[in-house]
């Protein structure tokens, strides 16, 4: 004979077991004294828990008011024993070391901004192939050349400083120039490779 689990007996004792499980458990309890005793212990524990749940009413509003009064009293007592130094808000903000740190921070910020806004110079030769081909960036674009001859991909003449050309050389001997074309508004990418 298989006995119901403790969880099933606890649910039966509380009246929370439903359907087929309830019918099977009741049928088993008719013939099993051990399970009836176990279920009776669960029912007794449920009654004891219900009795404990009935606690006297606690005046939460009065307790909250007392806590606020105690906090105010503590703050007032702290003010009585505080040294005679002025509060931080009452001192002058930019005095001595504070002024030096603030000015140094502003100066560092300005120098960093100037360095980051300065356009980077165009890179020189990037790669030279075994047969003498050279890929490089020039003032007007990127080119691949050998000896006195070169094939150059020029950037448009109307580029403003804010339309910076971004050069991207790589280790395999190629160079890429990228910019926003002022006439069309499209991003233009020129690439030259050495093999």
Describe, in plain words, how this protein is organized in 3D.
The protein has 195 residues and is of the alpha+beta class. Among the domains are: 6-53, no CATH class; 125-193, no CATH class. Helices cover 44% and strands 19% of the residues. The chain is built from five helices and seven strands. The protein has a four-stranded antiparallel sheet, with no helix packed on it. β1 (125-128) and β2 form a beta hairpin. The protein starts with 5 loop residues before the first helix and ends with a strand. 9% of the residues are buried. The mean pLDDT is 77.
Task: List descriptors.
195 residues, alpha+beta, three-stranded antiparallel sheet, 7 strands
Helix content: 40-55%
Distance between the termini: 86 Å
Low-confidence stretches: none
Instruction: Write down the secondary-structure element order.
Output: HHHHHEEEEEEE
Question: SSE layout and pairings?
Answer:
Blueprint: H1 6-14, H2 19-31, H3 33-53, H4 60-81, H5 97-117, E1 125-128, E2 134-137, E3 141-146, E4 149-154, E5 166-169, E6 174-180, E7 187-193
Helix pairs in contact: 1-3
